[in-house]
Amino acid sequence: MPAWTRSLLALLALATVSSTGAAQGIDPGGGAVGGGVARVVSPFFPSPGGSGGGSITTPPTGGGGQFTPPGDQGVPGGGAGAGDGGVSQPAGGASGGGGGRTSRGGAATGAIRGGAPARAAAVTSSTVRDSWIDWWETNKFDFIELRRVRDAPITGQGRVEESEDALRERLSATDRLVRAEVLPVLRELTRTGDTAVRASAVVSLAKLQDDQGADVARALLRDRSFEVRRASMLAMGVLETGRSSYLLMNIADDSALGRSLLDTGSISDEDRGVALLTAALRGDPAPSALVERLLQEPDDLPNEILAAACDAAGLLGSVECIPALTAIALDKGRAEFVRASGATALGRLGDPGTIPALLRILDASQEPKRAAVVALGLVGHRGLPEVVDRLAGLLDDTDGPTRHFAAVSLGRIGGDRARAALSASFATPRTDMRPWLALGLGLCERADPRGDVPVLLAQRLEKESNVETAGAYLIALGLCGDQGAGRPEGSWPWETVLEALAGALDGKNTQLAAQAALGLGLTGHPDAGTLLAEALSRTDNPEVQRHIALGLGVLGRATAVPQLLQLMRTTKNPFVASSAALGIAFMGDADAIGPLLRMIEKSGTTGVTTTYAVVAMGQLLDDERRPVLSRLAAGDNYLARPSSVRQLLTLGF
Question: How far apart are CA 295 and CA 310, in angstroms?
Answer without folding.
Answer: 7
